Amino acid sequence: MTPTNRTKCRCPSCGAEQVWQDECRRCRTDLRELRLLNENSLLLEQKLTDALDIGDYRQAVRYAQKLEQIDPVLLNEVLRQLSLSLDFGKNSANTL
Predict the structure, then answer these.
(1) Helices 57-70 and 32-54 meet at what angle, rounded to 10?
(2) How far is Cα 74 from Cα 82, in angstroms, rounded to an integer?
């Protein structure tokens, strides 16, 4: 099941694109486990960003490790967005 975005998916059996549901609209493949996996990864993404926002870096690392296990692509996107939001020039000058 490859997510086409966070609200749609593609059935691994027949390739039908649809919103997340428990069953494929075309071939009736059971998609419950994949839908739950998607929901869990989105929840971990939110918890990770919340932990970073409040400065709880230990907890953020724990959430990142869990997210990496179930959705490494999403984790990469979260880290990419985080790196873009940081001001590396200012931060690196202060840490030297």
Answers:
(1) 160
(2) 12
Radius of gyration of the chain (CA): 17
**Residues 53 and 46: beta-carbon distance below 8 Å:** no
Whether the CB-CB separation of 8 and 15 falls below 8 Å is answered with no
Q: pLDDT of 37-59, one tens digit each?
A: 888 888 998 999 899 889 898 99
Please report, for the chain, the start and end positions of each structural domain, with discontinuous segments joined by +.
Answer: 2-88
Between CA 5 and CA 8 the distance in angstroms is 5
C-alpha span between 96 and 17 (Å, rounded): 50
What is the three-class DSSP state of 3? strand
Compare 4 and 87 and report the one with higher pLDDT.
Answer: 87
